[in-house]
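Objective 1b. Sequence-to-structure analysis of Glucosamine-6-phosphate deaminase.
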Amino acid sequence: MEVIVSDTPQESARLAADVITALYRDKPDAVLGVATGSSPVWVYDELGRRVGAGELTMAAGQAFMLDEYVGLAADHPQRYRHVIDRDFTAKVDLPADRVHGPDGLADDLAAACAAYEDQIREAGGVDLQLLGIGTDGHIAFNEPGSSLASRTRIKTLTAQTRADNARFFDGDVDAVPRHCLTQGVGTIMDARHIVLLANGRAKAEAVHHLVEGPVTAMWPGSVLQFHPHVTVFLDPAAASRLQLASYFVEAARGKPDWQGF
């Protein structure tokens, strides 16, 4: 697991965008896994800037969303399809019809989950998956206690996650859906490269368990310790609980081509 502590979230986002840019230069039809939440937005802004400047094209690629709320109206602004369209697709040159997500309005949700797994597989799998992490250690919507071998399925959101997401619903926790469709931990682990971003002191405990704790379903992100290629970008606040935080900072400063340590 590569851990890079940057001075600011914006610097972490620039480094993450470097990784994605390199991927698309080497593989123009790459499959990107996209995430919602606050952490990836600066990455999407930087990718959009590079596309606009002619430094990057993603036009031949595909993207797959991590998750979707169940039951939100098709025109609801917090439906994740709309969030990704606004925060990511509208900023880059990847065609909207090549950005895929699970169907939270399907009549048969279990069948929709199985179909989504098939769609990812038929695309050749995800080359690079962007992730954030919840304060309770969840990745995507795989809450504490989730099976570490799980596939795309319906999940009940915890009270903590609904409280954390209430800020996107004008602070009204009752407006946050209780269920979602989410890629499973096993689905995420199939990605060939995982890039996770975390910022702020509120994420410090989850980051500690992610990087240095035992692997346990109570902190689902900890399973990434078993993945062969994970890069974690942190700001100093998110890294503040790491026993090796000072090493990661010094390593990042001393090694411009930080990949590999």
